[in-house]
Amino acid sequence: MRIFYTCEYCGDHIDTLEVDAVDEAKFGFDCLTDQERQDIIKTDIAQNAIYVKSLCDNCITVIGLDDTLSLGMPTIANPKGYIH
Ligand SMILES: [Zn+2]
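Above: inputs. Below: predicted complex with zinc ion.
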């Protein structure tokens, strides 16, 4: 099964994941309400595919969510000592 991530804002293709089975908790789908699921996730059984609406890096920057996301990642605010 393939999971296609598409940017909700500009329509750009973001990423494609190839998975054997969908682990809802792993993808964060279990945090969504039924309404949000219907809104964000489209399952195409014939194509064995799932389409997920997301946001690309570009649009995250444009919309201004960047600062909010950075706050959630303390390693970026304090990079010393971290080697990737
Ligand atoms: Zn976008």
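The chain has a mean pLDDT of 81.
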